[in-house]
Design brief:
Helix 1 runs antiparallel to helix 3, helix 3 packs antiparallel against helix 4 and helix 3 runs antiparallel to helix 5. The chain is mostly helical and 137 residues long. The chain is built from five helices and no strands.
């Protein structure tokens, strides 16, 4: 019975913790791309003077956002797999016959698509917001 309450409180903790971690991820990518843009002000000014379009200026920063998203995905899927492996024994105690690691392996492609899509999405959206703010100035 105590294990059931532990799992319930852990689940509620994850529901509260997940939005906080999502906001932190967005802010980290946002600030990283903002620093890159601040360091590239002269290049952006030169591209503006030469007559480059806004999308030509945005392109490299969007690609950087995609790269940050892919790196974040790789770290996240690795940590998810390791966590599933080590938590598999504990979930087997509470839910007999259930292995979290085998569930992870069975649904690996779905998890890959979700995490990769979210990572790339956060990177691209952050890059678009930061570059848009800088191009308006």
């Amino acid at each position: 019975m105590i294990r059931l309450f532990d799992i319930l409180f852990s689940f509620l903790g994850l529901i509260v913790l997940s939005p906080i971690l999502i906001i932190i991820a967005i802010l980290v990518v946002f600030n990283t791309i903002k620093l890159v843009i601040e360091n590239s002000k002269e290049e952006i000014s030169t591209m503006r003077i030469v007559g480059a379009s806004d999308w030509f200026i945005r392109g490299p920063f969007i690609i950087q956002g995609v790269i940050y998203g892919v790196v974040a995905f790789l770290i996240c899927i690795l940590l998810t797999g390791i966590s599933a492996y080590f938590l598999s024994a504990n979930t087997g105690i509470v839910l007999p016959g259930f292995s979290m690691f085998s569930y992870f392996l069975t649904n690996l492609w779905i998890l890959v698509l979700i995490q990769l899509g979210f990572g790339i999405g956060v990177g691209v959206i952050s890059a678009l917001i930061v570059v848009k703010k800088h191009l308006e100035v």
